[in-house]
Structure formats: C-alpha cells, structure tokens
Amino acid sequence: MNSETNQMKKILLHSFIACFLFVSSSSLTAQENDQQLTDTILRLDRLFWDSYNNCDLEKFAGFFTDDVEFYHDKGGVTIGVKDLTASMRNGLCADRDNFKLRREAVSGSVKVFPLRKNNVIYGAIISGEHIFNVQEKGKKESAEGLANFTHLWLLKDGVWKMARVLSFDHRAVPYTNKRTAINMSESILRKYAGSYKGPQSGIIAVKTVKGGLSLTIGNKTFEVYPEKENLFFLKERDLTFGFHVQGNKAVKMIVSERGVQVETLEAEKSESKKTSAGEHQ
Q1: Under 8 Å between Cβ of 213 and 229
Q2: Domain check: are 141 and 194 in the same one?
Q3: Domain-terminating residue out of 171, 201, 229
C-alpha cells in the first residue's frame, strides 16, 4: 500500500514539474516574441523619422498604408498616403534652404505595445513624446514644440505599415535653465542701474537687488542674475542682458534670446548729467 502511495506521489510530482516547465517555457517564448516585436517596431520608427527629418518623401510614403489616417490636434485630419505626402512636400519640406525641422524622441518616453488575435501578433502600437527642433537660416537650432504621438502599425503579408497616426497635446517646450549665477558685489551691480531706452521695449528701469538686478518694463518687474561681469540672465526663459560699460557706468544694454541679439537699448542720461552737460554748452 505504501509503495503504491509513493508511486502516485512520484507521478503527481512529475506531472507538476512538467506542467511548470511548459508554462515557464510558454511565458519565456511570449517574452522573447514581445522583445523581438519591440526591436522591430523601434527600428522601423527610427527609419521613419529619419526620412521625416531629411524630407526623403519617397521613403516617407513607403511606411504607410494607402488608406492611412492622420489625426492632428491643430491641423485636422488627413486621409490617404498621397495627401499626407503632399502636405509634407508643400509644408515642412517646401523651403529646406531656409527652414529645417528635426524631430527627436523624449528619452525614456517611447513604449511599444503588441496587438494579438488568437495569440498571433497582427500589429503594434508605439506611443511617446517628441520634441520638434527648428533651424532657420542664419540662426541656431531651437526646440520649438513638444507633443505626444501614437502610431498604429499593422502586419500584413509579412510587411509592417502604419495605418493610423495621432499627433496631439502640442505645447511649448519647458525651458530648462543651465546657467549658473555668480556672486557679484553691490558696487559692481550699481554700474548697470539706470534707465535704458529701446525701439521695442521702450523704457527699461534697472535697479540693484540682492544677488542681481531687477528690470521693470511698464508694470512688469523681473529679476536677472549675473553669469559673468556685464552679462545677466533670466532663469525662466532663454533671455540674456549684456551691458557695455564706459568708465564706471553702463551705456548700452544688449538683449539676446537663444543667443541671437534682438534689441539694443541706450542708457538715458540722468537729470543731473543733462543739466551739467547743458551748462557746459
């Protein structure tokens, strides 16, 4: 009786082990298939955006089904690969000598999701965030927009094609300040205090504050911080304010955005200096 019981236990144990190995093997195979799918879609995604960035419209068109549907939260709906390619040709790619757009994915945001029917992969969804960088002739490249994307890829006759494209939640790219403020004495800061007049901003009143300067334009006041002598920056935006100094007083203020000079303001003479200058005439 005991031998029969022991034999039954061995049979049950072997059955359990076999079942466990089968489940583990199936799970491992599914994971391997998902990883292969992810690698494939990410590779196609890179190739697609390479054609987009370079305005290679022949390659660009080859990534879509003929009846592709493109949904844009600002530009509406475009149906069909011919119309989608034409919109690129007449829009972003129309003036490549003076305007270039480059898309880049936000690191860590892109994910791939498999689509199955009867445990067979028939498609995939790739989704994430991306930034659009603009370069105009004579200017540095700058990040102009941030958006979300979702693409539906379908597998038919062994070929992957995009059938649906969603581009949404377009917004400005948050500015990340990478400049570091230095310590500057009150005596040096006083060189930049005064009023400056320019063609765009009008009058900018500059005063010293702890650690930097305050600038007032109309009813708005903001603080700027010294990156080096004669150069100050705004933490919330890529704006810098450079000063030209003669003797112990600034005579000009140079405003630059993203490294491009946008305005020059002249220092206004104080009333005492105006009076003194008038007396010597």
Answers
A1: no
A2: no
A3: 171
